[in-house]
Each structure stands twice: as structure tokens, then as C-alpha cells.
Hints:
This protein is an alpha/beta fold. Helix content is 44%, strand content 15%. α1 packs antiparallel against α2 (93-100) and α6 (170-182) runs parallel beside α7 (269-279).
Amino acid sequence: xxxxxxxxxxxxxxxxxxxxxxRRQISLIASVLFMLLIIGTALFLIxxxxxxRRGGADLKEAQAAKIAEEEAEIEDKRKAIEEAEKIALTYxxxxxxxxxxxxxxxxxxxxxxxxxxxxxxxKSTLEAKDVLTxxxxxxxxxxxxxxxxxxxxxxxEDTIAGNNAWMTFVDEFDKITQQMYDNGWVLIRMxxxxxxxxDDDGTVHFKKNKNLLLPPDKKPFVLSIDDWxxxxxxxxxxxxxxxxxxxxxxxxxxxxxxxxxxSVGDYDVVPRLNTFIKEHPDAAYKGARxxxxxxxxxxxxxYRTDVAYKTHEKLDxxxxxxxxxxxxxxxxxxxxxxxxxxxAVKASGWEFACHTWGHLSxxxxxxxxxxxxxxxxxxxxxxxxxxxxTIIFAHGADIGTWRNYDAxxxxxxxxxxxxxxxFYANVDASSEYWIQIQDDYVRxxxxxxxxxxxxxxxxxxxxxxxxxxxxxxxxxxxxxxPTPVSATGKA
Length: 491
């Protein structure tokens, strides 16, 4: 083979090697590109489907949030309707409708529209009541255990006679309350009798309330309690010991039984009536409760809050004996506890009234005498109960006759008005109702639902059975009472 042939063959071999190398390079590049394509595609798919999943989760979260919001709105609406129905039971249809109109879509949501329409229709059936024919009944503290109250081995005839005359048994109270409810009587506040306006200088003016609306078969009445202080003279006679606030914030009464067992429950008018109205909300107009007429000489609610218990000055025999029997007594603690009771009492709807500090008969008393008593009341009762514009006269007394009060001729009225009293109440069981509404004051006569008045009714000694329109006195009067019942004695 010639040199030329050898060179040509060598060039051919070199060319083949270069071509094989190029093919390998091309193949490698293609493989790399293919792998990059696969990786890129995988990354794209992962990203794409990841976004799909996240998007789905976000959508589900948004849907869940919307459902939760809708459920919350439905629950709020349900609660609002329930609350409005409760308010409507107290004949406050305006308040119930106002609550519903605060809800979202109240004018398009079928449930809200129907509820508002129903309450509007119910309101249209109400009628205005004549406030000049509203009776006012009252009680003292209730006798829990009559056997102890009328124990002749322990108490004098005079003491038993007083308790028999002026007090009411728990059982009698329950019967009266139930029968009056069944007969269509609805508790209102004394101040519901009027509408009140006030001048820029603070002068108040009263007019008859012409908008006291109740169903046609319902009738309004006012209620009050005298002497909720558990005087020392009540001790051991079957009454409660003191008012307390329980763990639920409700006002109750502590009672010590004859065997020494202490319990807390509905042992007097305030907690008993609160429980009844809670079970029968239609028994009270717009959540009304009664008036509590307070003295102060033995303290309030069974707490020894009068300053004499702190200073040990001018003590009577009962006070001294009580302090001797309670050497650990702390006046500041009793005042603090009494204030808790007062706040809870007011929170449940009751109002306080002055009954004078010393349970004075105001008849023929001078302004000077009453001023001394009033200062004591303000310092040892109002400091616990808060201020009041109502005075309920003790002993059924009054500062005038049946004629209108006149500040120009009645200095006691002028003085009482000047220190802020606008509502006045005496005792008058001669008629079913007695009310004066003047521009400057409101006065009402009260019927005592006690042993004496009930005995007079069932024995025919009363000129008129003032209970006839309220309850059946014959079925209420407890046979355990000693009879005849007389007005002699002291409670």
C-alpha cells in the first residue's frame, strides 16, 4: 500500500472517530435535554397540582368561614327572638320589637318579619288601664313557722296578738300570690301610675299615665313591704334571720329552724315573689317589683347597721343583749354585707322607700322632730339602699287628710317635698283603691294583707271586703291563727 493510500485510510478512520464522538455528544445533549424536560415537566406538574390543592383548601376554608358566619347569624337571630318573646311576656311589646329591629335583615328575613308582625298584632289588643282604680297591697315579713310565733309558753298574750294581727304566713302569701295571678292581676310599679316630666331647674310634674297598656283581662296592682329589717323582737318567733345574696347573685333569706338548723331559701316576700315572677314572667309589667319601706333603728335586712351598734351609745335593752350575745360582731362587715344585699335587691327590680328611721307616726309631728329622724335615716339607711323619692308612712299615718296636700298650708309636706319626696303612701283598707295624682306629688292608700284585715273580712267586721276583687280570703286565711284576731299587741 502506497503512502497515499495509507494516508487516505488514516483520514477515513479519523473521520469515523469524529462522527462517532459527535453522535455521542449529540446523544448526551439529547439525554440531558430530555432529563431537563422531564424534570421541568415534573416541577410544573407539582407546582400546578400544589396550587390546585392550596386553592381547594383556601376555598374550603372560605366556605367553612361563611357557613360559620351564617350559623352565628342564625343563632343570634334565634336568641334575639327568644329574648324578644320573653320581653313580650311582660307586655313590653315596644321593647321586644325594638330588639328584633336591631337584627340584620329584620325587614326581609321571614322569621324576623313574622315575629315582629305577631308582636305588633298582640300589642294592638292591649288597652289602657285607668290608673285611678289601681289597688296597692302590702305585707310585713312573713311568718315561716306559726307554731313558734304563737307559742304561748314563750310569748306573752300581747306579743302573740301583735304578730297575729300584723303578719302574714308564708302559706297565706303563696295562696294570695297564686290567686291574684289566676285572677288576672299584674304587678306594676307605683311610678307606672304616672308620667313624669322635669323642668330645667329640676322641678318635677306628674300626670296620669294614659298609656299603661295591658290585655283586656289583666288588671294592674302595686305591692309594698314594710320593715324588712328583722327586728330583735322577731328573734325566735319563726321569722327569717337576715337577707343574703347566694352564689347566683340572687337575694335569699337565711332561716334558723326550731332545732337550730340553718338554711337559705325563699323565706320572705322578696325572694318568694322573685321566684314566682321568674316562673310566671307575665305576672309583672315590664319586670316590675314592689317597694320596700325601710326603717333603720335596728339596722336593715337583719344586719345591725345602725351607728349605735358601732358606738355602743344610747342602746336599748334588745340592742345591748344582742351585742352581748355576739362579741365578735363587726359593724363595718355588716354594713358591707347589707350594701351587697341592697344592690342585688335593686338589680332584681325592687325599689326602696323611706319608712322613717324610728318607725315614727308622722301625724302631728313637727318638721324639727321629723328632720332629726330623717337625718338618721339618710346616714344609716340611705347610705346602704341609695336615695329614694318615696316615703311610706309607718303606723298607717299620714301628714294630711284625704284632701290634697298643699305646701302653702302644710309645712310638713312642704318640707318633705323640699328634700325630694314625690311619692307618698299611707294605709287605707276602707276601699279597694285610693289614689291622688297631683302636679307635684302622687299619693296612694294601701291595703294590709295581714291577719287582722283578713279576719275582719271573713268575720263580717269590715265595712267592705276589699279582698273580694283580689282573692278569696276564706280560702287564704290560715286555720292555725288564733281567733278572734284583734288590733291589740305589738309584733
